[in-house]
Model the fold of this input.
Amino acid sequence: MIVDKCKSKLLSTKNVSKNFGGVLAVDNVSIEVHENKITGLIGPNGAGKTTLFNLITGLTKPSSGEFFLLGKKYSPFKIHKVVEKGIARTFQNIRLFNNMSVLENVMVGRHVKTNFFSMGVFSSLFRITTYNNCENKQKEICIRILEKVGLLEKKDLMSSNLSYGDQRRLEIARALACEPKILALDEPAAGMNPTEKIKLKKLVKELLFEKVTILIIEHDVKLMSDLCDHIYVMDRGKIISSGKPTDIKNDKKVIKAYLGSTSK
Ligand SMILES: Nc1ncnc2c1ncn2[C@@H]1O[C@H](COP(=O)(O)OP(=O)(O)OP(=O)(O)O)[C@@H](O)[C@H]1O
Ligand SMILES: [Mg+2]
Done:
């Protein structure tokens, strides 16, 4: 077993690459995510940010490279295994269950943390006491999560009836329902208005206090500067720069590749 000596390093990738036909979407990327910190990933459209998230969370198989979680090598080839290991994520293109209520969406996210879905057909069919107790307890936890993200009053609405910003917060709630150690957020502020962005910033900072480590992709540079402890900048599959937000801002490579090439 390969053990990493740096204790605060919760997650890391080593020389990870992903080839789609002729496109090298992720090119030899090594990053580190430290416990109780907010690590950011920025870069122009098509830089490979989402692909890197997909590799870390088991949605896409790597062409090469290694992944480490809590100092141990892991193979992110199955998404449910990755969730069980403590990594949850949200999606750039919102993926909610539109025909379910807000609360039901969070309950689905909760199922990996509970065994009540696996309690057997008999107990669930006849809703015996243990099943009901377990279901009620899980519901309570989900309600508390909805309260945390500010969606409690909307718990019985169909998720498709939520505003864009609320749908993004529901995605966060669903990810939080499996009590992750690491929460990976892919453009959580996309489509949010300035007030919603302020609320999002507050929520992300609160999660740190609850010992959730954050990995975040965002195009909003101001939001990222305010939030992140450390930022990686990707361009054409490669990490072209990394450091504190102030270091990144003054890096000519970054200005050329990202800040100079987008109005976002
Ligand atoms: N499933 C796929 N099949 C083929 N090519 C893909 C696939 N997914 C991503 N790519 C390509 O890989 C490159 C990186 O895409 P990716 O979505 O990771 O970029 P991104 O940095 O997240 O961009 P954005 O900021 O627009 O979300 C792009 O050229 C994209 O077209
Ligand atoms: Mg993306």
About this structure: The first helix runs from residue 49 to 56.
